[in-house]
Amino acid sequence: MVAPAVRPPCSRNSARPAPPGIVVGMHEPQLSADAYRQLVEQSPVLTWRSDLTKACDYFNERWLAWTGRTLAQELGNGWADGVHADDFDRCVGIHFTAFDARQPFEMEYRLRRADGEYRWIWDRGVPFEDDQGRFAGFIGSCIDVHDAVEGRAAKARVMDLEMNRLTGLLPICAACHKIRDDVGYWQSVEQYVTRHSDAQFTHGYCPICDDIAVADLDAMPAVPDGRTLQRT
Fold first, then answer.
1. Who wins on pLDDT, 137 or 201?
2. CA atoms of 202 and 173, how far apart (whole Å)
3. Is 132 exposed, middle or buried (0-12, 13-18, 19+ CB in 10 A)?
4. For residue range 132-163, what is the model confidence (pLDDT) as tens digits?
5. Taking a C-beta distance cutoff of 8 angstroms, is the pair 146, 118 a contact?
6. Could you tell me which residue, 160 or 5, shows the higher pLDDT?
7. Burial (0-12, 13-18, 19+ Cβ within 10 Å), 66
């Protein structure tokens, strides 16, 4: 006797077979164990988990590939070997403080990549519970944000340089609004001076405007009593 053909499971409200790894029950479709594993291991984020002792007991495949280290090397506090020395105390302090308070945390720190370069990563950790609803540790995910952090730093350096150049009292011509630089040249004032600095201005005449003002005064007609206007 030939066994009847078995129809593949279908998603609810659909005549098409459910995607591989999807188990369809009486209610909502559920991921199979293999599908969950693929989701966690191959998700494009670096994932970690710590237990009740604050020691890490899991890292996903993406983490291990990015750091170039084995799971055995990373377990416990081994992962901290890759944290940049300048960020180590802050990184561990934030993690442990949040763990004790059982509160989520977010931070940026430099972690050594497989090629030896220290890269800025953004790390977010949240507490998780076991099947009985009891606190069981923390789960976290990280993404490489090195380019964004370096971009912010470069922009800040440029802004600091501009601010250092523009702070203080600047001699500016009240007539033509030219500004005298450090070597004595009178140049036009850019609009960004007032938008991007705390500089304050003194007002006076540059040599060119001073000559123009004198010429204008000399060219003025005499007053009715026969006198001419004199520059004060």
1. 137
2. 8
3. exposed
4. 999 999 999 999 999 888 888 788 777 777 66
5. no
6. 160
7. buried
